[in-house]
Specification:
0% strand, mainly alpha, 15 helices
Length: 372
């Protein structure tokens, strides 16, 4: 008898979470904020979570949103886009240097300015891989300050998602929102659309089972890019569905703050903001150096080198009329560097040292948000 009320309460919380995110996305989009559907839903969901509301969306919905957006991003690919990939290798290689430099600079800042112990600072400094970072940090027990790591990492993702589009817009480097739309409707080519969706879903499921980082998004993107880039298919996801998927992923990302006491957030705010500034400064400097060596668009490079969530940065590229394939290739390289390097660092790094240890405080609950 108790299962029915519990299930009903869960559905109510999911509906409330979706409504909060949708209202935020609608208002930001109506205000012409760049990437408003994503940024608005994320900000509203985070604010509601910090105010005590439980922002929860099921994992299956998160994956569905990722598949939709992967197909949408792949729909921007043209034969000309594929030809431009020959100019990317240098820039992609520099992403590895960017990851290492940003990690070292942020680590130095947290240990010397805020007195964090080395292990906590190391985990908080990694520009990406939030789920992997938190899992490895939890294994170190009281030697690592889990709340500090979670807050620094999560605020970095949220701030970048809001700040990057605003900064590009103010600088006049962000194009108008342009979700790819085909003159051919789904009703006109149902078979082609079915092939597109089924192929994308199969790729997402396959990469998910293989444990591929961000596979639920990258799989559909790759399938869609090949089909559209090769001119095999013209139809793609309706723009309204892509906007809804942005709201879903934005809401889940903001929901990472669910269960976090506001006072705890304030206690770490200085370190989080400082770490964010350091990592962004380093990434920007390396991105600028790359523009001097290769004829690549500045706006695309800014989003490609921004140490934010993979999904969020690629969605920003799509919403800001940049090249999501270019951005995705760079963030995929960053994910691989982090995924390969983090276990090595965690294994060999000593679990001691430093002045600060708050491991007795509760950590942020694990959420199915944007991949990072």
């Amino acid at each position: 008898m108790s299962q029915a009320p519990a299930s009903g309460l869960k559905l109510v919380r999911i509906a409330e979470s979706v409504l909060i995110g949708a209202v935020g996305g609608f208002l930001f989009n109506a205000a012409k904020f760049p990437a408003g559907w994503l940024a608005g839903s994320m900000v509203f969901a985070a604010a509601a979570a910090l105010a005590g509301r439980s922002i929860r969306l099921p994992r299956s919905l998160a994956r569905a949103c990722s598949v939709v957006l992967g197909i949408t991003m792949g729909g921007t690919v043209t034969p000309e886009t594929l030809g431009g990939m020959m100019t990317w290798p240098l820039s992609i290689a520099m992403v590895s240097i960017s990851v290492a430099a940003a990690t070292l600079a942020t680590y130095t800042y947290l240990t010397r300015v805020h007195g964090w112990n080395g292990l906590t600072a190391m985990f908080a400094s990694i520009p990406g891989g939030l789920a992997q970072v938190m899992a490895l940090a939890a294994e170190r027990g009281r030697a690592c300050d889990l709340p500090g790591v979670a807050i620094v990492q999560t605020l970095r993702v949220v701030i970048l998602t809001v700040v990057v589009p605003a900064a590009l817009s103010l600088a006049g480097r962000a194009g108008a929102v342009r979700l790819p739309a085909s003159s051919i409707t789904v009703a006109e080519t149902p078979v082609a659309f079915a092939i597109l969706v089924s192929g994308a879903a199969a790729a997402a499921l396959g990469l998910l089972r293989l444990g591929f980082p961000g596979g639920v998004l990258f799989g559909p993107l790759a399938v869609s890019a090949v089909l559209h880039g090769g001119a095999f298919i013209s139809v793609t996801m309706p723009p309204w569905l892509a906007a809804a998927a942005m709201v879903g992923l934005g809401t889940m990302s903001g929901g990472r703050f669910t269960g976090l006491p506001f006072r705890l957030l304030l206690g770490y705010l200085g370190a989080a903001m400082g770490a964010f500034a350091v990592s962004v400064t380093v990434a920007t400097a390396i991105g600028v150096a790359v523009t001097l060596m290769a004829p690549l668009p500045v706006s695309d490079l800014i989003v490609a080198y921004a140490p934010g969530a993979v999904d969020a940065m690629m969605i920003l590229a799509l919403a800001l009329n940049l090249d999501p394939v270019f951005v995705g290739a760079h963030h995929l390289a960053r994910v691989f560097v982090v995924s390969l390097g983090l276990p090595i660092l965690a294994y060999y790094y000593p679990a001691s040292g430093g002045k600060r240890d708050k491991s007795g405080r509760p950590s942020l609950p694990k959420r199915d948000g944007l991949d990072d």
